[in-house]
């Protein structure tokens, strides 16, 4: 599983970085930066919560 | 007890996100979502933002995905609850049984006392937004009663469409009671910069129809405002009437413990705008009408239903945002009367940004950022770790590159 982001959809709400600072941050323009796109086994729930917390649906998990 | 069937009452953001969180956590049982509105579940914040400006369409704001596998019962209000039999009663008298029940019936717009509802439009549901959008045409006179965030966003959308916009606000400045006069005047200036007239310390005495479909708004001080469209954003009321005979504890919302479980009712939870939960840190009950709160509570309750042994209490950072005139206004934390507020300007790589920082006895209590999402995230993390005011200021200064003096002295909030 890897984290994917569509910066074009990002609105800078910052909920992802509020939930999970290990994987998400915002840049100076207020757009999402995926700090690390790999998800360790124990991180799955937190990343999934961050994904659900995005009002713009700009981030998602995909792949094996 | 095994949970085979979860019933969610309310096709709201909270209700749908709770159902999705249950699926994500591996729940394979039946998931029934009951909604009073017949529209497919949709996201609420865009109603006063992108949907109103036409940047988004109805299709863009849908909440449900095909693989959620929800049993959606839309256009059907719940009218009662029999907690002893574990049944929700629908408008047609049909009972729906549950093992776990999630109450997410939200709030409805408060109506202006004495005003004709046909003349004074609310903005709470998709159909309200659709009706309003059609009326926001260039040159149309629009009067907005209430300068809260809904009113302010409608004003911004209407101004963007070229309407002649007037906002009627009862306070000396929008938000001045909660956010203090400095932030209130920043918001007033933002409106004024876009040609919107803000009448402050102004209360509405009556709204009367004019020939055609216009209206005249009469203020208590005798002034009159003619409008083609009048919109009210004067607060909301929790939808709890359907629970009046249920025996559940009610009082400006459904009362829950710190985990959003309804007190004295096993297997029943309340989340989102309708829930008044016990805040363990503050020792008080709270109700919040914010998107992020609704989603956090949805996650919490899904977790609790499936994995009660690992349940947490609701202790999120209060956060909401507003989009006005292309400026993202984000608030983190909670302001109380008497908090010290300081308005600062930071030189960020993307331009100068205003931030209002609130504190009490050196403790950071809240931050309002204007067009600086990254600063908002930094403030949110600081709030989470219980930072002091000096610590937040240092973190924001480091993030931006520097503070620019703006000559606004710190003063008491209210």
* Spatial order of strands in the largest sheet of chain A: 1-4
Tell me the radius of gyration of chain A. 10 Å
Helix content of chain B: 10-25%
- Average residue-wise pLDDT of chain A: 93
CATH level-two architecture of the largest domain in chain B: 3-Layer(bba) Sandwich
Strand content of chain A: 15-25%
- The count of helical stretches of chain A stands at 2
Domains of chain A (count) = 1
| CATH class (first level) name of the largest domain in chain B | Alpha Beta
Dominant shape of chain B: globular
Oligomer: heterodimer
Output the structural class of chain A: alpha+beta
Strand-residue proportion of chain B: 25-35%
Largest interface: A-B, 19 and 29 residues
For the largest beta-sheet of chain A, the strand count, sense and barrel status come to: 2 strands, antiparallel
Q: What string, H for helix and E for strand, traces the elements of chain A in order?
A: EHEEHE
Tell me the Rg of chain B in angstroms: 22 Å
Question: In total, how many beta strands of chain A?
Answer: 4
Ranges of chain A where pLDDT stays below 50 over 5 or more residues in a row are: none
* CATH 2nd-level architecture of chain A: 2-Layer Sandwich
Percent helix of chain A, as a range, is 10-25%
Set down the secondary structure blueprint:
The complex is a heterodimer of chains A (64) and B (414).
Chain A: E1 2-5, H1 15-19, E2 24-26, E3 32-34, H2 44-52, E4 59-62
Antiparallel strand pairs in A: 1-4, 2-3
Chain B: E1 5-9, H1 13-24, E2 30-35, H2 50-53, E3 71-74, E4 78-82, E5 87-90, E6 95-97, E7 100-103, E8 107-109, E9 120-121, H3 126-135, E10 141-145, H4 149-160, E11 164-168, H5 176-179, H6 181-193, E12 197-199, E13 204-209, E14 215-219, E15 224-227, E16 229-232, E17 236-238, E18 254-255, E19 268-270, E20 275-279, E21 284-286, H7 291-306, E22 319-324, E23 327-333, E24 340-348, E25 351-360, E26 363-370, H8 373-384, H9 389-400, E27 403-404, E28 411-412
Parallel strand pairs in B: 1-2, 1-7, 2-3, 7-19, 9-16, 10-11, 10-16, 11-12, 18-20
Antiparallel strand pairs in B: 4-5, 5-6, 8-17, 13-14, 14-15, 20-21, 22-23, 23-26, 24-25, 24-27, 24-28, 25-26
